[in-house]
Amino acid sequence: MVIGGERVEAAEGGTFDVVEPHAGETIASVPEGSAEDVDRAVRAATRAFEGEWRTMSAADRGRLLFRFADCVREHEEELARLESRQVGKPIGGARWEIGQVSKVLEFYAGATTKLRGSTVPVARPGLDLTLKEPIGVVGLIVPWNFPLMMASWKVGPALAAGNTAVLKPASWSPLTALRFGELALEAGLPPGVLNVVTGPGPVVGNALAAHEGVGKIAFTGETATGREIMRTAAGTIKKVSLELGGKSPSIVFADADLEKFAAQGPYAVFDNCGQDCCARSRILVQRSVHERVVELFVQATERLKVGDPADETTEVGPLVSVRQRERVERYVAIGREEGGRLVTGGVRPSDAALADGAYLLPAVFDGVAQEMTIAREEVFGPVVAVIPFDTEEDAVALANATPYGLSGSVWSRDIGRALRTARAVRSGVVSVNCNNSVHVEAPFGGYGQSGIGRELGLEALDLYTETKNVFVDLS
Predict the structure, then answer these.
(1) C-alpha angle with apex 81: 45 to 312, nearest 5 degrees?
(2) Whole-angstrom Cα distance, residue 364 to residue 167?
(3) How many CB atoms lie within 10 A of CB 436?
(4) pLDDT of 440-451, one tens digit each?
(5) Which of 106, 277, 278, 315 is flagged as catalytic?
(6) Which residue in 102, 191, 338, 347 could disulfide with 73, CB within 3.0 to 4.6 Å?
């Protein structure tokens, strides 16, 4: 692990294996941290915060983050291949994600000198002003589906705002986070500013959420775990931001460019093998074009290249583990039992070269009703449910018939209808006539049980700062 600027083993000496999902082989053994390791990391982060990091000028802090971004870019291929191996991500996608990591760090490096307070007109004679100050030590818990990219979404604004951090990666994907911690030191970040502790969520994550030395927890993952983190953090009244699950729709109106939707739509749900909280896992399609959309979408889905993540032509790799594949297969079985019509996929590929991996062919269900399990619950795998609707009002009602509200897409040539629908859908991010709703420069987050707070953009800095009000009596 990386604690206080040093590579260290777990205090109790334990380790756990990282298994490659393509072939089911162990590729690394990693320290299995405990509450004692979390305490070591928090104390190291506290020392760093109270030392030179807290007194460093915003411009100097920004220069270090720019250097960190450059260091990540110099190791982009190494990190991409490591990411691809540990979670089965196609190498092309892994390269894109690591490229985003350096861009996120650059964005927040430039933001260090943009944190500003304000002056406030008050009734009493005097000067009232606000200051933006760092929280202190923050705990950052990230998932396995986009391991390093999600880490950068938290590390970037946390450090830009002047905090120090303890990063806890998912147990299925710790390798790039550990390398990230090393690269931070190589870039010149002071020891203890970024610490990385590996280990099981119920132990390491819980210890971070409970630690009295941690002022804020940022978590990305499943909604049930988010609830537990909130309960634990309540013991010390920590600030909490959560980016949780989703059951996002693609809303396709009859006047949409159906060929464009069919070409792009499969990537909105099957990219990363469907393991994406933003996955458009429900296709809500106007009844008059329902059959045509299903036909085009199935054709496009069956053209996707499923295979070895190291193959440059692969578009869909394996799920993160055999256990995750079995979970998704149970949803496929439930979908059929409840009356859904499996049009394509939902089975393991016949290619013998993929037999040892956690592979599942992308599944398209038609004949789905909103009350069915696959239309309500987050599958987190390559499964999409097609649901017809009649009117604009019906589409909005179906889109909002979920406790989640993370993302979605609206497809229509009628820009008025598209904007009305985008405004009516209760979702944190919505795209029109495309799938691109996440941008480094713009806020990202969800409504309802999809989370609390907004990551990315300048709004993310609000998650990692305290606002102090100062009044100077001039009478």
Answers:
(1) 150
(2) 37
(3) 12
(4) 999 999 999 999
(5) 277
(6) 102
